[in-house]
Structure to design on (75 residues):
């Protein structure tokens, strides 16, 4: 179980950097897909977040020209 200060840190990070997306699934009537994600150029931050919340996967890095690599956590 995560400590309350860790949960508060994760909540603050998600509030500032996270996103929730919902969209219809075309092949299913009345079905919606929901994605919850967080992105950062600091892999250690994403790994810590994933460890605290206890769900999801860390993916990346995604490489873009003239930018730092970006790591993603997603459920």
């Amino acid at each position: 179980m995560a400590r309350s200060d860790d949960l508060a840190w994760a909540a603050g990070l998600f509030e500032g950097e996270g996103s929730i997306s919902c969209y219809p699934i075309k092949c299913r009537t009345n079905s919606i897909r929901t994605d919850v994600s967080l992105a950062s150029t600091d892999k250690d931050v994403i790994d810590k977040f994933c460890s605290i919340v206890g769900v999801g996967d860390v993916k990346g890095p995604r490489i873009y020209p003239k930018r730092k690599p970006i790591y993603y956590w997603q459920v």
